[in-house]
Amino acid sequence: MPRDKKELLQGTLDLLVMRILRSGARHGYDIVKRIEVLSEDAIHVGEGSLYPSLHRLERRGYIVAKWDISETGRRAKFYSLTADGKRKVSQEERHWAEFTSAVNLILKNA
Q1: How many structural domains comprise the chain?
Q2: What sign for the dihedral angle of Cα 34, 78, 61, 88?
């Protein structure tokens, strides 16, 4: 996969993860399921993509993780947005809206 496309996909996944976490703390499996439900099963995220995204967001200070007990009674790492993460997700949503608007213009007029 070309580098630029890979970076775009990573950035998109990071945005989706942060947007999901805006509603509250979630563990990895719950994030994946929420993305599937909200996308009406159009987007599926594997562990090989999700956990690098979570670690990247955590390194950048946009999310924090803490161990807790999941709804199934098992220990799980729960992720939540930091104040910087809340600002970043709002900024990235604006950028995404601008980008998709520009792409739609091209698709419509080309």
Answers
A1: 1
A2: positive
**pTM reported for the whole predicted model:** 0.87
Close Cβ partners of 102 (under 8 Å, ≥ 6 residues apart):
none
Shortest CA distance to 90 belongs to which of 42, 19, 27?
Answer: 19
Given pLDDT bands bounded at 50, 70 and 90, which one contains residue 11? confident
> What is the pLDDT at residue 10?
63
The 3 state secondary structure assigned to the chain is CCHHHHHHHHHHHHHHHHHHHCCCCEEHHHHHHHHHHHCCCCCCCCHHHHHHHHHHHHHCCCEEEEEEECCCCCEEEEEEECHHHHHHHHHHHHHHHHHHHHHHHHHHHC
> Could you list the residue range(s) of the whole structural domain that residue 20 is in?
3-109
CATH of the domain at 53: 1.10.10.10
